[in-house]
Amino acid sequence: MDFYQITPVESGFTWRLSYLKKPPKMLYFYGKMPENAKNGVKSGRFPKEPIGRAKVVAIVGARKMTAYGESIAFKIARELAELGVIVVSGMAIGIDTAAHRGALAGGGKTVAFLGTGIDKIYPQENYDLFEEIIRTGGAVISEYGPGAAIGGRMKTTFLERNRLISGVADAVIVVEADVRSGSLNTAVHALEQGVPLFAVPGDLGRQMSQGCNNLFSKGAAAYTCVEDVLNVLFPGGVKHRAKAKCEFSGTEDEKIVVSAVSKGLYQGEEIIKFCCKKEADFDITRFNIAVTSLELKGVLKREYGNKWILA
After folding, report:
1. 43 within a domain of the structure (yes/no)
2. Is 245 within a domain?
3. pTM for this entry
4. From 115's CA, which of 17, 50, 160, 243 has a CA 20 to 30 Å away?
């Protein structure tokens, strides 16, 4: 598989990296850099950044994750990906892998930053994930070229790449970390770079929650639901989410049901009536199949009785 090389300013996705205190001189990547929605420049924090750059959220955490941490990372990434947000992480085992997998499950694009030379996919057990990221239109990036003599510096290079993960992000979420987790280094970079930082709160007595809980005193906001991040990424984030839910990549029946709920129809009978206008033979069996699947995907949730709302 061929890789490419660019400077940070040659891509709207990586433009921000040229403003870091220690910008990468060159970036090497497999796959495809995320495209901008339209050309042009805008004023603001990054005055020459192209207009239309997709929103980007970095999701990081411990390698030795718990089942809870894995499920949360997967869910956050999937929900964001369904909204067209690009999920960035480091492709390490643990939370990073769960985040990439969640983004792929949500039908979105995900980008991984390596701490090794571009010709050394690490860890090797994630080679299938590497291939899937590329196949679905994402990218795997490193500031280290082929044959880079990293050797015993690997711990340092992995910490250095963390500044790139936070540097391209509009927000960073730390899902699970103990007090010595390398993901906390990404959080430090985010705070220094002025990138909004979130942490998932955890039990006070649980080791894998201590790192996240400690971040609250340093300026991190608590992540409780996807709207917490949407309110930072988008003005009127909840409305944007409801609109985007209608555009997610589900079955036709699922799309019709979500469209009904997004229009304010919550009772099962009302939803079925709406769906029948779209599909004459839409019946209760198709409705039950659709809402069950949507509930499992985390798109809808059941309230009391036969009432459904966006999750």
Report:
1. no
2. no
3. 0.73
4. 50
Q: Which is nearest to 95 in space by CA: 120, 117, 82, 112?
A: 112
Q: Are 175 and 76 spatial neighbours (Cβ–Cβ below 8 Å)?
A: yes
Is 86:62 a contact under the CB 8 Å cutoff? no
Write down how long the chain is.
311
3-state secondary structure of 10: helix
Report residue 193: phi and psi, to 5°: -85, -5
pLDDT tens for residues 215-267? 999 999 999 888 889 888 875 444 444 444 445 567 888 888 888 877 667 78
DSSP per position, 162-182: HHHHHHT-SEEEE----TT-T
Strand ranges (DSSP E) for the chain?
4-6, 27-31, 56-60, 86-89, 110-113, 139-142, 171-174, 197-199, 221-222, 300-302, 308-310
Q: Regarding beta strands 221-222 and 110-113, do their DSSP bridges make them parallel or antiparallel, or are they unpaired?
A: unpaired
CATH for 26: 3.40.50.450
Give the mean pLDDT of 12-40.
Answer: 83
Domain holding 111, by residue range, is 4-31+54-233
Q: Report the range of poorest mean pLDDT among 24-28, 31-35, 100-104, 150-154.
A: 150-154
Residues 169 and 99 in one domain: yes
Please give the structure tokens belonging to residue 86.
């690009």
Tokens 């309110």 identify what position? 231
Among candidate residues 55, 110, 52, 54, the one with its CA nearest the CA of residue 78:
110
Q: Is residue 192 part of a domain?
A: yes
